[in-house]
Amino acid sequence: MSARILALLACMLLSAPLRAGDPNLQLFIEATHGSAETVQAILSEGAGANITDAKGTTPLMRAADRGALPVVQLLLAHDAQVDAQDRDGYTALMRAAWRGHTTTVRALLDHDADPDIRNKNGFNALTLASWGGYTETVTALLSRCQNLDAQDSGGGYTALMRAAAAGYADIVRALLQHGANTGLKNSDGATAWSLARAQGQKQMVELLAAKPTRQ
């Protein structure tokens, strides 16, 4: 079964008001798999750039999730809401950051996407990119992110904790250079240093030990 057919079935299941032949439904499909040219044609037929499916997903989120920069730019030019959140609290920026789509992240930031918005689990875009190990994406986000030390609502982890435990040295360095707090503790009382130590991340332990701790 082709990707487009699967996308069509998914959209029909997720969004009951949308029906085959509806340009809004077609926009979801093309935002997920199509080109900027096909998306432009559908928008010209009257599809709305800010339509949502039953999960609150927008075409912009779908395009950002796959790093389709021309489609993202086109939807933004048609006034797609850059900071719209789905039912789980994810924005287009979070989706692009989680996948490591740096050019898309930059484009969204250039349209004033807010990197400090959190989803229902307390993750912001910086935490997602750090957890995924995407150094360039993290660097792009650090140029705009105000809250480097956001702690998630599940375990109280920060971006620094996620990167340190995973052994992402370049990301840890970048976060430290931008002032990430090494003294914060998660819900189990662990710091970035102790998490790195528990995971046997010797280089991370040395990097963090060299940074003065602040509470």
Topology record:
Layout: H1 3-14, H2 23-33, H3 36-44, H4 59-65, H5 69-77, H6 92-99, H7 102-110, H8 125-132, H9 135-142, H10 159-166, H11 169-177, H12 192-198, H13 202-209
Helix pairs in contact: 1-2, 2-3, 2-4, 3-5, 4-5, 4-6, 5-7, 6-7, 6-8, 7-9, 8-9, 8-10, 9-11, 10-11, 10-12, 11-13, 12-13
Characterize the structure shown.
There is one protein chain. This protein has 13 helices and no strands. The model is unreliable at 11-16 (pLDDT under 50). 53% of the residues lie in helices and 0% in strands. The relative contact order is 0.08. The protein has helices spanning 3-14, 23-33, 36-44, 59-65, 69-77, 92-99, 102-110, 125-132, 135-142, 159-166, 169-177, 192-198, 202-209. It has a domain at 121-215: Ankyrin repeat-containing domain (Serine Threonine Protein Phosphatase 5, Tetratricopeptide repeat), CATH 1.25.40. With 215 residues, the protein is mainly alpha-helical.
Write a compact overview of the structure shown:
With 215 residues, this protein is mostly helical. 53% of the residues lie in helices and 0% in strands. Helix 4 runs antiparallel to helix 5 (69-77) and helix 8 runs antiparallel to helix 9 (135-142).
